[in-house]
Design goal:
The complex is a heterodimer of chains A (209) and B (88). With 209 residues, chain A is an all-alpha fold. Chain A contains 9 helices and 2 strands. A two-stranded antiparallel ribbon of chain A has the order 1-2. In chain A, a hairpin with a 5-residue loop joins strand 1 and strand 2. In chain A, helix 2 packs antiparallel against helix 3 and helix 4 packs across helix 8. Chain A is elongated. Chain B is mainly α and 88 residues long. Chain B has a single domain, classed as Arc Repressor Mutant, subunit A, CATH 1.10.10. Chain B has 4 helices and no strands. The chains are: A mainly alpha (209), B mainly alpha (88). Chains A and B meet through helix 2, helix 3, helix 5, helix 6 and helix 7 of A and helix 1, helix 3 and helix 4 of B.
């Protein structure tokens, strides 16, 4: 059984996540509203990161909460309620991503580090551009660059990155939400981060390696 | 039988270990081998620094929250849809 999150509803009453789900399964409208208010911003954020725009993210939020209402009875509590929500959100976002025509494919490998046959970095010295990043942290152009780079990731790599680096989920929780092993989560997360690092390196005029 | 930890790693192997290294999930023996490599390899030190900064910067990326007015409108829309949809 997943560890329940606790919700304070009054000075002496603690309602567990499981209680809320049971009330929802019984068709309690107030509970639905409470769950909506508690989680919609999280779902909206996750969907926006996955889809790159707020208009589609709003549609996903609506779709997810309708699914919560319609499918509440299928929630068995093997995973946390939030994990179930993340799974619903990812699935809804993925079906939209699949329908999109990709304007251009980017070779992910071109932005990953490359190595010589003996295992040394292919391009040496590796240039330290971290100070540039520090200076431009609040720069809108840099933020836009990162958003575009995230857009280029494969959907599953993007989902892993979003759940890890934006939602702070553990690798185990991400695995449960996306149906991946922890090892697969780590591999995808590392690749996504290396790709973003490569994109930044190129933006600063250096080799990704 | 436990797998033996190599005494040296290449830059390529060191790069593959970074995801676990930055969260302290590497076992002590592998951590020692990686840190010995980092003591000798400026390229990997710089790579690690830029890798960590990339993660830090990515985490600062934020989109605007959903406006309050839209939240209420969406909840009303959901209520209307729920009236028309019975749980499966």
């Amino acid at each position: 059984m997943a560890q329940a999150e606790h919700t304070q509803s009054g000075p002496h009453t603690e309602i567990t996540e499981q209680d809320l789900v049971q009330r929802l399964q019984a068709g309690d409208a107030e509970t639905f509203d409470a769950l909506f208010r508690q989680y919609f911003q999280k779902i909206f954020r996750q969907a926006t990161h996955l889809l790159g725009n707020t208009a589609e993210a709003e549609e996903v939020v609506q779709e997810v909460f309708l699914a919560v209402y319609e499918k509440a009875h299928t929630f068995r509590g093997e995973a946390a309620f939030t994990t179930w929500l993340y799974r619903l959100t990812t699935n809804a976002a993925f079906s939209r991503l699949r329908r999109r025509k990709r304007s251009h494919e980017v070779a992910i490998e071109d932005y990953l580090p490359q190595f010589q046959p003996d295992g040394h970095h292919l391009v040496r010295p590796v240039v330290d551009w971290s100070a540039n990043l520090e200076e431009r942290l609040a720069d809108a152009q840099l933020q836009q660059l990162l958003r575009q780079a995230i857009e280029l990731l494969q959907p599953l790599d993007k989902a892993v990155l979003v759940l890890s680096d934006f939602e702070d989920l553990s690798n185990k929780e991400i695995g449960e939400a996306l149906g991946l092993t922890v090892l697969a989560v780590k591999a995808r997360l590392h690749r996504a981060r290396l790709f973003l690092r490569g994109q930044l390196a190129v933006a600063f005029g250096h080799s990704p390696t | 039988m436990a797998e033996s930890v190599p005494t040296r790693v290449t830059c390529e192997q060191a790069t593959a270990l970074l995801i676990d290294y930055i969260t302290g999930e590497l076992d002590p023996a592998t951590t020692l081998v990686l840190e010995r490599h980092l003591e000798r390899c400026v390229d990997c030190v710089v790579f690690l620094r830029t890798y960590k900064e990339t993660i830090r910067t990515t985490r600062t990326l934020r989109y605007d929250d959903m406006p309050g007015e839209l939240q209420n409108r969406m909840l009303q829309t959901l209520h209307a849809k729920m009236r028309g949809a019975r749980p499966q």
